[in-house]
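Quick one: structure for this chain?
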Amino acid sequence: MEHDPNTANFFFHALFQAHRTAVQAGLAERGIEALGSPLLMMLLQCGKEHGEIPTQRALAKVLLVSPAAIAMSLKSLERLGFVEKRTDPADQRRKRVTVTPKGEEAVETCWKVLMEVDRRMMEGFSPAEREGLERYHQRMLQNLMGAEGSVPENPFERMECQCSKP
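Got it. Here's what it folds into:
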């Protein structure tokens, strides 16, 4: 069996790990390293601000992870006081997750950390290069997702949330 010596795979993995490490270090510097997934918290806050608290199933779909992974993350966030679960008034079997005031402060910190890390990561790139890179990433994601439909620009758009829009 021949192996493709494509180093792009290595660099993609290394970039993901380096970005994640930088974000976690930034969160740790600010005392919220236990937060886990900043994106999950940001999506929850976005939903809260727009009056549409997402279900666990919706969060799993948006973040491309299993519902079990979301449940474990939410249990940890709830234990730490960042979120709380409430029964959906329209369907007693459903649980809605909302961000607590402590969680809201953490979300603001997440935005700051992510912006700092992204600014550092994209240093020296022109606006055209940034746009091209985003299109390439979208296309790669579409290739991996197959015929499931078009890939929105970002997870906030998957939830029809405008939090990331200027």
